[in-house]
Amino acid sequence: MSALIDLPRPYLLFLGDADDATFLKTGLGLRDWAPALCVAEYKCDGALASLGMPVMRPGEAHAAGARALVLAMASIGGGIREAWIPCLLEALEAGLDIVSGAHDRLSADPRLQIAAERLGRRLIDIRTPPADLPIGNGRPRTGKRLLTVGTDCALGKKYTALSLAAAFRARGLDADFRATGQTGIMIAGSGIPIDAVVSDFVAGAAELLSPAADPDHWDVIEGQGSVFHPSYAGVSLGLLHGSQPDILVLCHAHGRENIVGLSGYPLPSIGEAVSMSVRLARLTNPAARCAGVSLNTAGLSAEAAADAIARCADQWNLPVADPMRPGRAFDELVNACLA
Amino acid sequence: MSALIDLPRPYLLFLGDADDATFLKTGLGLRDWAPALCVAEYKCDGALASLGMPVMRPGEAHAAGARALVLAMASIGGGIREAWIPCLLEALEAGLDIVSGAHDRLSADPRLQIAAERLGRRLIDIRTPPADLPIGNGRPRTGKRLLTVGTDCALGKKYTALSLAAAFRARGLDADFRATGQTGIMIAGSGIPIDAVVSDFVAGAAELLSPAADPDHWDVIEGQGSVFHPSYAGVSLGLLHGSQPDILVLCHAHGRENIVGLSGYPLPSIGEAVSMSVRLARLTNPAARCAGVSLNTAGLSAEAAADAIARCADQWNLPVADPMRPGRAFDELVNACLA
Lengths: 339, 339
What we know:
Two copies of one chain form a homodimer.
Chain A: E1 5-6, E2 11-14, H1 25-33, E3 38-42, H2 58-63, E4 68-71, H3 85-93, E5 97-100, H4 110-119, E6 123-125, E7 144-150, H5 157-170, E8 175-178, H6 182-188, E9 190-191, H7 202-209, E10 218-221, H8 233-243, E11 247-253, H9 270-281, E12 289-296, H10 302-316, E13 320-321, H11 328-338
Helix pairs in contact in A: 1-6, 3-4, 7-8
Protein name (chains A, B): DUF1611 domain-containing protein
Organism (chains A, B): Sphingomonas colocasiae
Pfam families (chains A, B): DUF1611 (PF07755), DUF1611_N (PF17396)
């Protein structure tokens, strides 16, 4: 039986040889969303970037409880840089496994491969999905599920899911964040990189990710892509069907009018996106409904954001909030999810 | 740059050690749809199954022009049976490459692997998609495209596409059948096994499969799965978006009321299936339209089939035909595709 990716924890966050925070998106996400999993940060000698955490070398971090070094930054091109290799070898020697979301496989470097084998350490590439995933079976499962969906890629589906899972738990509910992308998997400590799964198994992977649970348990599932995206709609639809969500939250970025990176693809309206997403979701969960909109208002002043949120809520007659701006609007979105 | 799977041809069809035709679906498809590619049949000593073709051993077939031995039957479980190995080695020795759609990889057998290396032969597993597939870009392409879509799996999408491509050519048009499944790829001699592609690349693979062409050229693309199937809808949607079809032909099996192999999943009505398929297709081709219905009437008498076709056409006000039953109805479906 296949299982989710399950990462050794807690982590030592490796920042490589970066001098600024541009490439630290994964590290920032881990620091902000999984502080209990992050023991310290570590970087190449002389590098200037920092997450503002305690600095430890691998041996020290292992003594403090760390079990894996996580590549918490990206490189241009997504590879593993030569300058990192001595640091990664030091981590293996210190008893840490290595977790990477880079394009290059860790084991493709013979130095890492040989050291890991000699020391009995694991090299974990989280772009590699679990083996032997099942075909989706479409059977209903117990427990409650929420999936974040979007009008486009890269507009807050992961942070919305993390925020909602945290809000559910703050209300005393039993809720798990279920990760489908690399940073999400590192934050959750487990998950499936859904866009790396062979297409025939996407719905089955999503079923595995949010298995049958107690009737009152919530799985809050990180969405991927968009059913309105000409490159990735198939991934999003397989995830939607396999997740069998009771609740959808539609994520949108204020002011975005076109699919990022493509020409000739205007975004759907909020209303069109809600109605199509719910219609598609009802294939596997006839009770699926949209609880509201997560509106990314990054870059707006507090006033302008409140105004954009209020106008969107009026126009579509739905609860709307930016989870990055806690307050009454977000509380109402949470209420609507749980109603 | 990645390319389609491109098979060495013509073929010697290998029937293994089967005694009856139950497992010969691929062989029957090749014999019926690609007779010019099939030099002869070949089987283990004593096996009784036959496609009714000339029988040749590999050396003889090679002398007659064959360039590949094709595993033209399935085994229970999809593996490569021990009894076949001596025959496959004989084929390699005779100068033939081997083409397989089995679950087991040919190269996983060291005897085949070593012989192929020594002889400079290729072991081609058509379940393995090409490397380095692109992400879909959604850009319009020149040329005309038709995609067969379905209310379910396994109801005639491949045969419908083959029949329409043949009918287009019979009318003097320049038309290619574009294969997305194993048997289809063997029939076409090239293609991409779309359900084996990593989900992120499905739309890109479909774009590669039906590239920009002369304005009057038709690609007639083999559909896979169904956007109404809870296990495979994502595959179908990625193929739909990447294919950018001008024309959809909806395939349905007369009398089928539920998704095969699942409980609780009634098929959509023809009307619902047409309207949803066209709506989804219009994301990447705003001019997409459904030309009609391919109704699988296998098992019905000629009279009952004609009646079922007429009733379906009346009910939905669309051209309806069973491509396995040539005649006026099919001619009208072809007219509607080309209108």
